[in-house]
Amino acid sequence: MTQVQVFEFNPFAENTYIVYDDSGQCVIFDPGCYTAAERRTLQDFVETNQLEVVRLINTHCHLDHVFGNNFVCKTWSLLPELHRGELPLLERYPATCMLYGIPDVEPSPMPKHFLEPGTQLKFGNTKLEILFTPGHSPASLSFYCHDAEFLIAGDVLFLESIGRTDLPGGNHNQLLESIRTQLFTLPGETLVYPGHGPETTIRHEMEYNPFL
Length: 212
Ligand SMILES: [Zn+2]
Ligand SMILES: [Zn+2]
Hints:
Blueprint: E1 3-9, E2 14-20, E3 25-29, H1 36-48, E4 52-57, H2 69-76, E5 80-81, H3 87-99, E6 120-123, E7 126-132, E8 141-145, E9 150-154, E10 157-158, E11 161-162, H4 172-183, E12 191-194, E13 200-201, H5 202-208
Parallel strand pairs: 3-4, 4-5, 9-12
Antiparallel strand pairs: 1-2, 2-3, 6-7, 7-8, 8-9, 10-11, 12-13
The chain binds zinc ion (2 copies).
């Protein structure tokens, strides 16, 4: 069975996820670990559960979702994977940190290949559908696991809220369109793991989300 572990990291209260299954393999989504203690927490979980980290995925490349890219890449000999359209954000990440007054960040390693919407992300016994959900950022991806009925949503959809669209590359109408066509077409019981805040379900958001 595929399982999901959440960690809340960094001053932006970002959710980092480890998705793992009985094979012992796991994938880290959006490593936001910023402090040494946060990095230790992430590594401790991997080691305690004797997991093999096989991929590093960024739903999108806002700074709060990539603080730990360098650490994860170095620790487990990986390169990040993301949509090609997020590359400019990843390249600008150290400069963006300067704008926010965040000193001394390690630049992220650059991807060698990119994720394609409409294909599957596979590891161990787990398959996730790669969904194209832009609007909060230029090329956000979401990841849907049909077998275990969950969604890694990045900053697209939150509990009774949606991602902000006032950052560079944001587009409010495009975000609503992404949610309506890519997420609200999933089964209602799908558990949504957002980039910030608590879990929700597709059904709950279709009923109670005031933005939609
Ligand atoms: Zn974001
Ligand atoms: Zn975020």
